[in-house]
Design brief:
This protein has 398 residues and is mostly helical. It has one domain (7-372). The chain contains 16 helices and no strands. The chain has helices at 16-32, 36-39, 46-55, 59-75, 83-116, 122-135, 143-162, 165-168, 171-190, 203-223, 232-262, 268-296, 299-310, 312-326, 336-364, 369-372. α5 crosses α6 and α9 (171-190) runs antiparallel to α10 (203-223).
Length: 398
């Protein structure tokens, strides 16, 4: 990969906004169906809700892999070797990630306090608030931002070791070793219950993202295998990858189906391995699928889904409020069709209302970045159908 002096000269990968949009839809699906697992466990419809919920659990790994991919793609040539570059890097993250996180966490904490802890003393309340900020527990989805902050804190160090093509080849085996070393250590000795809030639990996704980011110019041809430009060999490899992905995904779904439905318990390493394979292959498939959608789907649809992906960080932060308010609406009937419509309505409300709120805030409120992160630029002109340099900035939820 050729070295450049100005990182802004590097062409952005516009299809990654589509990737981000699909991952965000998976997040909404997980949260919209979160209450269905227990509610439908003894019904015939459980198989559907279990599938929707478990199949969508590639979402957080997908976002982390994408963040690592984009960061290494953007910085592997220029690096972060000077104090000025480090200052600029962390100032941007402090402004566009940490500040929205603190504001949203405070709002969620106050909501929970008003709903359930109004009798708690001031000292205990302040202590609980500080703990919730540190651990990302003000609301159930905010742990992801804590993982993201951990990644940004150590990113310059990882970049230093893996920014070259020669060293990046070791990223994947090191990622597997860190991931599974921690999983086994935690099982045998540490016994950390909430390990999902620790970046080391996602080492493999971070390192695979680093590898793809550094090697992108060499391997992007394979990710275009679904398009007319794809070679016959790449399409055969793609067919194998997709078949393995389907098998891994269904295996993961079936594992949890047996656990929830019949009370079967397996070694925790099986759950970890099934989720690991499902999530990692989903990330690879999503990159390919996003490239295909950008080039082959109608332009109007591509613009819409791209825009949704561009504002996904704000949607991620706000959608639980929409779901909370929606669930205050009583369920009209008890039959399976009414329940399905009710759950589907929650998904649509979280999807459409969250999107509308974030869009309106970005459009009409000058300081909306304080609540929802970076204000994405409007994309002008026709959708690009080739891997050409664009002036569009990639906006991962980072």
């Amino acid at each position: 990969m050729g070295r450049i002096d100005d990182m802004s000269n590097k062409s952005s990968i516009s299809s990654l906004s589509i990737y981000r949009a699909i991952a965000m839809m998976a997040v909404l699906c997980i949260h919209a169906t979160s209450q269905t697992i227990k509610a439908t466990q003894t019904t015939d419809s459980f198989v559907v809700y279990n599938f929707l919920n478990v199949f969508s659990k590639f979402a957080v790994p997908a976002f982390l892999l994408l963040t690592s991919f984009v960061m290494f793609y953007n910085y592997c040539d220029k690096g972060l070797t000077s104090w000025s570059s480090l200052k600029e890097f962390y100032t941007k993250r402090l402004k566009l990630i940490l500040l929205p996180y603190v504001i949203c966490s405070t709002c969620y904490f106050l909501l929970n306090h008003w709903l359930a802890y109004r009798s708690r003393g001031l000292g205990d309340t302040l202590q609980a608030y500080v703990v919730s900020l540190i651990k990302g527990t003000a609301y159930t989805h905010l742990y992801y931002v804590i993982i993201l902050i951990q990644f940004y804190l150590i990113f310059p160090v990882i970049l230093y070791f893996f920014r070259s093509v020669k060293s990046a080849i070791w990223a994947i085996p090191i990622g597997f070793s860190l991931h599974w070393g921690f999983v086994i250590w935690n099982k045998l000795d540490l016994h950390i219950v909430y390990k999902g809030s620790l970046l080391v639990s996602y080492s493999i996704y971070v390192m695979v993202g680093a590898f793809i980011g550094v090697y992108w110019n060499r391997i992007q041809g394979w990710f275009n295998a679904l398009t007319p430009e794809g070679s016959r060999r790449d399409r055969w490899i793609t067919a194998v990858v997709w078949l393995v992905w389907i098998a891994a995904s269904l295996g993961h779904v079936q594992l949890w189906y047996a656990t929830y439905k019949y009370g079967m318990r397996f070694n925790t390493l099986w759950y970890e391995a099934a989720w690991n394979a499902h999530a990692l292959l989903s990330c690879v498939v999503l990159i390919q699928l996003s490239q295909y959608i950008e080039r082959r789907f109608p332009e109007r649809f591509v613009k819409l889904i791209t825009r949704f992906g561009d504002v996904s960080f704000g949607i991620y932060l706000i959608h639980p409020v929409i779901l909370y308010l929606y669930r205050k609406i009583p369920l009209g009937g008890g039959d399976s069709i009414s329940y399905a419509l009710y759950i589907g309505g929650g998904f649509l409300c979280a999807f459409l209302l969250s999107w509308a709120i974030v869009e309106l805030c970005h459009r009409y409120i000058p300081f909306s970045w304080m609540f929802f992160g970076a204000v994405p630029k409007k994309r002008s002109g026709s959708v690009q159908r080739q891997n050409q340099p664009t002036q569009t900035t990639v906006h991962p939820p980072n």
